[in-house]
Amino acid sequence: MPDPLDDLLPRFSRAIETAFGAEHAGADPVLRRSAQPKFGDYQANGAMALAKTLGRNPREVASAIVEHLDLAGLAEAPEVAGPGFVNIRLLPDYLGAKAAELAGDDRLGVRPAPVAETVVVDYSQPNVAKEMHVGHLRSTIIGDAVVRVLEFLGHRVIRQNHLGDWGTNFGMLIEHVGDLGEDEATAELSLGDLEAFYRQAKAKFDADPSFAERARLRVVALQSGDPATLAHWRLLIDLSTRYFSTVYELLGVRLTDDDIAGESFYNPMLADVADDLVDKGLAVVDEGALCVFPPGFAGRDGKPFPLMVRKSDGGFGYDATDLAALRYRVSELGADRIIYVVDARQSQHFALLFKAGEMAGWLGAGTRAEHVAFGAVLGPDGRPFKTRAGGTVRLVALLREAVERAEAVVAERGGLDEATRAEVARQVGVGAVKYADLSNDRSKDYVFDLDRMLAMDGNTGPYLQYAHVRTRSIARKAAEQGVAPAAGTAVLVTEPAERALVLQLLALDCVVHATSEALQPHRLTTYLFELASAFTAFFDQCPVLRADTPGQRASRLVLTDLTGQTLRLGLDLLGIEAPERM
Ligand code: ARG
Fold first, then answer.
1. Taking the model in full, what pTM does it have?
2. How far apart are the first and last CA of the chain?
3. d(Cα 308, Cα 313) in Å, to the nearest integer?
4. Residue with the nearest Cα to atom 6 of ligand 1?
5. How far does the centroid of ligand 1 lie from the alpha carbon of residue 448, in Å?
6. 528, 152 contact by CB (below 8 A)
């Protein structure tokens, strides 16, 4: 196995057992990569906690561990440092052998998950006849990265695009289609400007009481399945999803029409879900509405806060749909894990939903649900991102601008023909926006700043893409010179920069698994940035094509190639393309 921890940990358990007896064999040595090379490659801090349990001095405990620690074949004699740290420095031969192992593995050391689960990922979720805004951008990008990581680890992923395709808004939207006539409505909605259509409908609704009244009646007609009304409703959905598909294509995300399970999909299940909750004694009538009151939630007024199963007018809303979707995902889709990639402002909604799901017995027994919450995208002024006119910033417009600016960046570098340049600019521009989003701790807000996103240095998409490009160009040169390394080439770890690079390459498995558990893509971006930096240092300090000996050159070419493959795989898991040249 690639991760040195797999080799080190059993040796630690054995040492602890011999030193302190079998009852302490399970004590966690708290073994981590060292923050600085002077503390070795790995450092164990477990002696502190163990000392507390044993009522002994931590340094003494660390010394006792070291005395029994047999690291033959793995590391130099371990050292005790500071108050009781154990510092480990791996042997060059061991590191070289591990790196060579990686080079022969097309998963680059990443193990499949021990148990393959069925995972439902609810993401993107734009609203019909409304523009996709930057919040939907975040959900789409983060959700897609999460899906890719989970699939790579062998899980069965079911994507669910919980399209906002139902609700009282549709009264006014459908009425507006009727007023315009199908042809004109189609033309209007095909412009790729859903917001304009929505605004027109809303303006009429607000200004014209007779239109508002017709809209209200239209909601009733929609709910009772009136064919003409349904036809106009479908037109809205078709035109909107066609538009969303163009955005998905531009973004390069893996969402298709087959992944749509919109709010309306659950309509036939709502009454039954309400009955189920009543039968279980969980739903009660409160001021005419059927509500579930999960304990521990209070509104602003301090009163218990409900999930609304059925509104007092008899209608079902967002809460009811999510209750039905949850039950469906457990019982029909067989989910082991359900992931909701939604704005942090909906945290209370999901906390209530999950609690209700537990109370109903849908969650808990084998199925867990998680809200992958994310913060807001801010404008340059640090306030929620809006156009100058105060409207929603259009997602496509942002992406197009990013690609345009990337063209300039790529053109400045020169050397590509026009067709390649356009393709690379798309990869760089879209990649930069995605990377900037994914590299932030998702729970935090971030400022949308194209200049920074497109910078060629720092923790950016283009920097990583460029590091990959460099590895490819070295490989091409090696091939031209007829010195490409053969399979099974020995990896020699002599220079500090080589050691640092190998250690980083070996850590991929651990990082990908941590990313899938915490559902935090920024763990992977941080890793890739550190890898690219380690490669830059290696490249500065260790001549590759001009290495002293053919053996060293072959070894360094293997490390270069491994770096390139790891960057490419890592970027792919984030949904970012890695061009061959730029
Ligand atoms: N369409 C909603 C919005 O734009 C998000 C839906 C999130 N998913 C869910 N299952 N509630 O805010």
1. 0.95
2. 35
3. 12
4. 125
5. 22
6. no
CA angle, corner 187, sides to 181 and 189, nearest 5? 95
Looking from the CA of residue 164, the nearest atom of ligand 1 is 1
- Sheet strand arrangement including 156-160: 156-160, 118-122, 337-343, 368-374
**Ligand 1 pocket check for 162: Cβ under 6 Å:** yes
CA 260–ligand 1 middle distance (angstroms): 12
**What residue owns the CA closest to ligand 1's atom 2?**
125
Q: Which of 211, 223, 209 shows the shortest CA–CA distance to 179? A: 211
What are the tens digits of pLDDT across the range 327-352?
999 999 999 999 999 999 999 999 99
- As a whole number of angstroms, the distance between CA 398 and CA 377 comes to 12
> Ligand 1 centroid to 263 CA: how many Å?
9
Cβ atoms 576, 461 nearer than 8 A = yes
Q: Are 444 and 422 in contact (CB under 8 A)?
A: no
**Distance (Å) from CA 164 to ligand 1 centroid:** 7
- Tell me how many degrees the CA angle 403-564-412 measures, rounded to the nearest 5: 35
Ligand 1 contact, 505 CB (< 6 A) = no
Distance 68 CA to ligand 1 centre (A): 56
Give the DSSP per-residue string, 418-470: HHHHHHHHHHHHHHHHHHHHHHS-TTS-EE--HHHHT-SSSSSHHHHHHHHHH
Which secondary-structure segment (H or E) carries 478? helix 461-480
Does 125 contact ligand 1 (Cβ within 6 A)?
yes
Give the C-alpha separation, 251 to 234, whole Å.
Answer: 25
pLDDT in tens, 66-119: 999 999 999 999 999 999 999 999 999 999 999 999 999 999 999 999 999 999
Task: Report the nearest atom of ligand 1 relative to the CA of 163.
Answer: 1
Q: Which amino acid is at 439?
A: S
| 150 burial level (CB within 10 Å; 0-12, 13-18, 19+) | buried
Give kind and range of the element (H or E) at residue 368: strand 368-374
Query: Which of 162, 195, 326 best tests ligand 1's pocket when mutated (most atoms within 8 Å of CB)?
Result: 162
- SS3 state at 131: coil
CA distances from 389 to 93, 449, 456 (A): 63, 19, 32
What whole-number distance in Å separates Cα of residue 39 and Cα of residue 544?
28
For residues 358 and 98, the answer to whether their CB atoms sit within 8 Å is no
